[in-house]
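Annex B. Sample input.
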Amino acid sequence: MYDAEKDLNYINRQLAYYLYIVGLDYENIDFYTIDIIINRARNLTQAPIDEVESNKLNYHDNDLYLFLKNQRISLIGNIRRIWYMRQLALGAIKNAV
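Annex B, continued. Sample output.
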């Protein structure tokens, strides 16, 4: 049988890890939206990516760009997935009452 509380505890531990990476405090989780978290994740690697996209930096000569871009894609994807899982668990808890 599905235990939403147990699932939520696991999800919250995972989310706390990602919030720490982007510089947010898990204690304030109820005040964050997914947009706030994603924007913080984007800002971690924004400057080098902006340099490439504005043609100031040739990414073919710079592996850093490709690395940062891949890390940002992975980070944002994981945050979105965990946030979605959290919403499902919260909904299951709410509907169980």
